[in-house]
Amino acid sequence: QVQLVESGGGLVQAGGSLKLSCVASGRTFSLYTTAWFRQAPGKEREFVTGIVWNGRITYADSMKDRFTISRDNAKNTVYLQMNSLKPEDTAVYYCAMSKLWSAIPRQQTQYIYWGQGTQVTVSS
Among residues 79, 80, 74, which one has the least CA distance to residue 28? Predict the structure, then answer.
């Protein structure tokens, strides 16, 4: 059974930075696509970014200039560095792992394992 545990969320002022972590256990972490999604109050969950086994990355257009995904296979950890945060970035951020290994789907239905989420709040 795979477990994903996110951490690093919190309250930050607009313009600030946060780095989220997602630690995976129970599966060969490095082989499968891992992604970050977020869900703001009253909105649908949306794709943020994803990374595949060879390091290829995809970002949502609105976040590619401010967010950076990375992974440390030795630590079974995926990170999300978020810079120049805006109040509209306020959301619960989720880590997810796909059943795929070469694609980075943007549909949450393509991801079979999810973390519990970590709250990010950006004040104006």
Answer: 74
| Rounded (10°) CA dihedral 112, 2, 121, 75 | -130
Q: What confidence tier does 47 reach under pLDDT thresholds 50, 70, 90?
A: very high
- What three-state secondary structure class fits 6? strand
Report the candidate in 80, 79, 66, 91 with the shortest Cα–Cα distance to residue 16: 66
Lowest average pLDDT, out of 50-54, 80-84, 87-91, goes to 50-54
* Distance from C-alpha of 21 to C-alpha of 95, rounded to nearest angstrom: 9
